[in-house]
Design brief:
Length: 325
């Protein structure tokens, strides 16, 4: 293995830059050259490659986003698109690839390797959703929950001033991990997640009782993928049926994807980046580098791409006791 390529794909997440840096430095440590692929699979098809050396990844460990850009590529979903990508990688002398992305990116890598087994791929789970099997945390998740938490804390300040009811929507189309953690840590009065069916009449009753007893601000944290249909839809169904004089909806949206990665995400990026390079050097392929109980592990793509939407019973209990109004 003389030359590897690294790229970021799918939804961006904080910590991707720290991870690119770790891949590059680990490769250099092992006398391996690195090419960065710009804009995901789309850039791979176009041969949009840039050599990365130590200087090229200087000063990026603390930067959000990804210096390589990310993209979703419809063309890579076709055999013709993947053939073009293969030709570009071969022409550039790439012996192995590190893909930093979510389950879609790993599925793309799997299909590619079935057609072009000459070039092995190893994956790093870069997504804020924490919804991949085989790793305790995905890259960017810790930063995202802390961003959401900071926002919830600020909303609490203003909610208390007027004793308002707030519906705060956080990211999570299929998984409620961001909602659950930021909701527990932010002292939310209720947390609604896609994994648990939402009982609107019960919620209305509980908000009413809470208002009666405490006359206090009330924050409902809702994951975007909850069956209530997100914060705006939930507010429509609830706000006229509860005694709060005023309610507000805040959708945190893309601020959860940005920002300086936390210490935990930077350390994860370093462990995973080094793990990916070492796996390629050991002739491994088709695996995601995860971290379980602080140890770096290798998880086959076919396992890691299954959506992990199992909420820990312990956190469920905490949410039930502390957030059931
Ligand atoms: P996130 O979880 O943040 O959305 P992701 O990696 O799951 O990230 P996707 O858009 O699902 O994001 O996938 C990224 C890219 O991977 C797609 O745009 C496409 O080019 C490629 N890809 C996804 N699934 C396949 C597939 N089954 N076959 C070939 N390529 C795929």
């Amino acid at each position: 293995m003389k030359k590897i390529a690294v790229f970021t794909s799918g939804g961006d997440s904080p910590g991707m830059n720290a991870c690119i840096r770790a891949v590059v430095r680990a490769a250099i440590y092992n006398q391996v050259e690195v090419l960065g692929i710009r804009r995901g699979y789309a850039g791979m098809i176009l041969g949009d490659f840039v050599p990365l050396d130590r200087e090229g990844v200087q000063g990026i460990i603390n930067r959000g986003g990804t210096i390589l850009g990310s993209a979703r590529s419809a063309e890579f979903m076709t055999p013709e698109g993947r053939q073009k990508a293969f030709e570009q990688l071969q022409a550039a002398g790439v012996d192995g690839v590190v893909v930093i992305g979510g389950d879609g990116s790993f599925k793309g890598a799997t299909v590619f390797m079935e057609e072009h087994p000459e070039i092995p791929f190893v994956g790093i789970p870069g997504t804020i959703d924490n919804d991949l099997y085989g790793t305790d945390y995905t890259l960017g998740y810790d930063t995202a929950i802390n961003t959401a938490l900071e926002a919830i804390d600020k909303i609490r300040d203003t909610a208390e001033a007027y004793n308002r009811l707030f519906f705060v929507e956080v990211m999570g189309r299929d998984a409620g991990f961001i909602a659950l953690r930021s909701g527990i840590a932010g002292g939310a009065e209720a947390i609604l997640v896609p994994e648990v069916e939402t009982d609107i009449p019960l919620l209305i009753q509980q908000i009413g009782e809470y208002h009666e007893k405490h006359k206090h601000s009330c924050i409902i944290v809702v994951a975007e993928g909850d069956d209530a249909g997100g914060a705006f839809e939930l507010a429509k169904q609830v706000q006229d049926k509860v005694p709060y004089e005023e309610s507000r909806v805040t959708v945190l949206g893309h601020i959860q994807r940005g920002g300086t990665p936390t210490c935990a995400d930077r350390v994860l990026a370093a462990q995973m980046g080094i793990g990916a390079v070492e796996a390629l050097l050991a002739n491994k392929r088709g695996i995601m580098i995860g971290v379980q109980h602080k140890q770096v592990v290798e998880v086959p793509f076919e396992q890691s791409t299954k959506h992990n939407i199992e909420i820990s019973p312990s956190l469920k209990k905490v949410a039930h006791i502390l957030s059931a109004i």
